[in-house]
Every structure is written in C-alpha cells, then in structure tokens.
Amino acid sequence: MNDIQQAVGDDVAQALPALHAFTGCDAVSAFIRKGKITPYRITKGNSCFLETFKNLGLSPDFVSEATHKELQKFVCTLYGFPKDTDPNCVRSQMFQSRYTTKSREALSTAPNVGIDMSLLPPCSSSLRKHSERANYQAFIWRNAHVQHPVLPAADGNGWCVDDVGNLQVKWTDGDIMPQNIVDIIAESMELTCPDATDWLPQEVEEDDAVDSIIDVLFDDEWDSDGQ
Question: Residue 200 is part of which domain span?
Fold first, then answer.
C-alpha cells in the first residue's frame, strides 16, 4: 500500500476513497459503462476534481453546494461534455442526439429499437442523492482506522427508511416526473395502444405507476402494436 501511495502521490491517494465510492461500489450505484479508469484519469488530470474528491467524505452528513457543483462538472466531463456544468442539459443533449422522433411506420419496421435511459447521466437531483451516498461511504472508509468510529444514521444521507423500518435508496427529491407529463404520456399511450394502460390506476400519482409507464415506454420488447 505504501508503494502504491508513493507511485500515485499523496493527493491522488487521498482522493481515491471518495472517487471509488462515487463511481460505484457495494453501497453506491455506478455510472453505466463508465468504469473506473476513465474517471480516474479525468480526476488525476484536473486539480479541481482532485481537490473535490480529497474533501468528499471528510464530513459524514454534509455535501456543500460548491462540492455538488464540482461533482456536476465532473459528471458532465465523464459523459463527454467538459464545457458543460449542468447534467440536466447534458441529459437533454444526449437524448435529443440519440433518440429522434420516429414515425409509426419506422417503428413498425424496427420494433425492437428501445431507449436505454441508463446510458444518460443522472439528473441534478438524483446526482445530489448519489453524492450524499458516496460521501457517507467515503467517510466510513476514511475512518476505517478508528476503533470505535461515530457514524450518523444512513437515513438522510442518500437513503431513507420505509414504513417497516427497512433502509431504502432515495433516488431523488420530489416526483420522478411532473404529473402533467405523466397525464400526457398516459393519454398518448391510450391513443396508440389502448390495452397498454389497462393496468393504470385512476390517478397516476404513485412512483410505482410512473415506473410502470417508464418501463412500457422504454422497454425494448414493446413496439407500436403493443406486443
């Protein structure tokens, strides 16, 4: 371990725990198809990112707004947009460039063409929760040498507790998507495929119902005939 630290340098060594947590570990989700090498190279080559990951995890329950902004820049760079600072804009640009509107005829000839939303960067709200989980996990690792570390509850640090007391990942604050958008999507699905929305409740407000809509919209198995 000493040899590794000497090889990479003190700054990189101090940044590695938080970088590892942020890019995916047992407790924190990863960025699909981004791996570890590319994030490592980006961090090592940027003094601001290096400083950000050196500081992430020093406090157990606080991610400052300045740190959140730097992590947003990092994610934009990770997805190939180094000049952008807002992951929401990058999501929009990537979505529009990859998934243009297709006619019904085009869909019928290529029924298995779906939209893989996992290849897009997280939105700003989801990224904040992701950062909180990475910060919490990095804090645990940074205190691995302490015999009896004092750790705050995970609840409120990117996780939440459900009605029966189980710890759950809190993916985002607020609704997954605005209710008016859900209504428009549901109405559109009824027009194009009436049977597709038989499972919807009278008021589509619960997260499970929204997830179901997303599953139908972006499922590679679903085509314009509802098959």
Answer: 179-217
Geometric angle at alpha carbon 176, from 184 and 107, rounded to 5°? 50
- Interval 114-137 mean pLDDT: 90
**Over the stretch 73-100, which tens digit does the pLDDT of each residue have?**
999 999 999 999 999 999 999 988 876 6
Same domain, 130 and 44: yes
Indicate the number of domains in the chain.
2
Comparing 43 with 211, the larger pLDDT belongs to 43
Q: Do residues 139 and 194 share a domain?
A: no
Spell out the alpha helix ranges (H) of the chain.
Answer: 2-8, 10-22, 37-44, 47-55, 65-78, 87-98, 104-109, 124-142, 179-192, 207-217
Specify whether 21 is located in the same domain as 115.
yes
pTM surpassing 0.85?
no
**Residue 209 sits in the same domain as residue 107:** no
* β-pair partners for 161: 167
